[in-house]
Amino acid sequence: MALPNMYYADLKDSYLFYNIAQKTGAYLEANPDKHLYRMGIGDVSLPLCDAVIKALHEAVDDQAAKESFHGYMPECGAPFLREAIAGYYAQKGVALSADEVFVSSGASDELGDMLDLFDRSNTVLVMEPAYPAYVDANVMAGRKIQHLPASRENGFLPAPDESIQADIIYICSPNNPTGAVFSRDQLQAWVDFANKKEAVILFDAAYEAFIEEDTLPHSIFELEGARTCAIEICSLSKTAGFTGTRLGYTVIPKDLSRNGMNLNAMWVRNRTTKTNGVSYIIQKGGAAVFTPEGQKQIHANIQVYKRNAKVLMEALDTLGIWYCGGKNAPYIWMKCPDGMGSWEFFDYLLKEIQVVGTPGEGFGACGEGYFRFSTFGSPEDTKEAARRLVALLGKKEG
Ligand code: PLP
């Protein structure tokens, strides 16, 4: 008998997005004339920018002619894209060689696949509330998970302490779902901790392009000592609208070794065994993101989402409701008013003002009593949702 991986039986069903779909579906069935203001989505709403579209078209044409046709691409990424990404890091003051950059089909793929590099006996630290894939990918691999709950008291940015016994540490900054961003000093504390314990940090930087405060780190490699303890996982999904086009990149420094094994070399071996590279066409589109024109255009799109964030933050300020995020991240994490539970607040907003967000409890137990708004919706819907929030909760407060 082929024995299946029985750790899959340990996975807890995630009811979060299923429940949201069920509840909104039922509401629309009962109220077919109503429009929903969807502030829960983690997907982008703006199309790819012109520079990317032009590069994609040109790459398709390349594939039509014998002289410019590309077959299999190098497994770890096309040199033109690896170099473009290393150049992007150089602008942030981070020196990388192109062969420390690995092109991927997206951060989700990497967050799971990267675990191949680690023994099953490792303990994994997940700071919660968290992006659900961190926990599930490790449950599937049968690893022990230590949950580190964050709270309003620490700004949803927990610090390391001696009670932590983890070998692999997930850090997501800017954070999904809280929008909180580690300062340089706070992140340095985690880098120092990881080096001391010989742990490895998996740094999820999917939202780095949303950082607007100069003092905050975009990359963990801006910090001293990170080259010997961290892997950085990035994505063009939210930065450049590649959610459906699929492209990401991962940085594994050559200085990162454990127990005599070099993780950069191991990942080269992994990729050359398990993939045949990312499509030439998509990599050409991705390279356009890192041109001056591409950067200008993606930041114009990011500004649209940032204006949405501003509209929602102003509404919460008007209402005197506590929140974090929004400024350096596309998510706003608010305290539910009047001690409401997160699903209770979800139902209340759906019924009263047709605004849909994401209950915090879906990101870990310590998210109960909180609620996430995404800023990726349309400006029109965001403005109307904010207006409705103020009208409803202002009336309640008064
Ligand atoms: N990491 C975080 C924190 C995310 O929020 C997401 C997507 O929402 C991802 C990774 C996955 O990104 P990708 O689309 O590149 O797989």
Descriptive key words:
398 residues; alpha/beta; Aspartate Aminotransferase, domain 1; Aspartate Aminotransferase, domain 2; 12 helices; 15 strands; binds pyridoxal-5'-phosphate
Give a short overview:
By secondary structure, this protein is an alpha/beta fold.
Cα Rg? 22 Å
The CATH class of the largest domain is identified as: Alpha Beta
CATH architecture of the largest domain: 3-Layer(aba) Sandwich
Bound chemical compounds: pyridoxal-5'-phosphate
CATH topology of the largest domain: Aspartate Aminotransferase, domain 2
Structural class: alpha/beta
- Helicity, in percent? 25-40%
Q: Give the distance, in angstroms, between the N- and C-terminal Cα atoms.
A: 66 Å
Tell me the β content. 5-15%
Strand element count: 15
Q: What is the H-and-E element order?
A: HEHHEHEHEEHEEHEEEHHHEEHEEEH
Low-confidence stretches: none
Give the integer mean of the pLDDT values: 96
Biggest pleated sheet: 7 strands, mixed
Number of domains: 2
User: Would you identify the CATH H-level superfamily of the largest domain?
Assistant: Type I PLP-dependent aspartate aminotransferase-like (Major domain)
The total count of helices amounts to 12
Write the layout of secondary structure elements.
Blueprint: H1 16-30, E1 37-38, H2 50-62, H3 79-91, E2 101-104, H4 107-113, E3 123-128, H5 133-140, E4 144-149, E5 168-172, H6 184-197, E6 200-204, E7 230-235, H7 237-240, E8 248-251, E9 257-258, E10 261-262, H8 263-274, H9 280-289, H10 292-319, E11 323-325, E12 331-335, H11 342-353, E13 355-356, E14 358-359, E15 370-374, H12 379-397
Parallel strand pairs: 1-13, 3-4, 3-5, 5-6, 6-7
Antiparallel strand pairs: 2-8, 7-8, 9-10, 11-12, 12-15, 14-15
This protein binds pyridoxal-5'-phosphate.
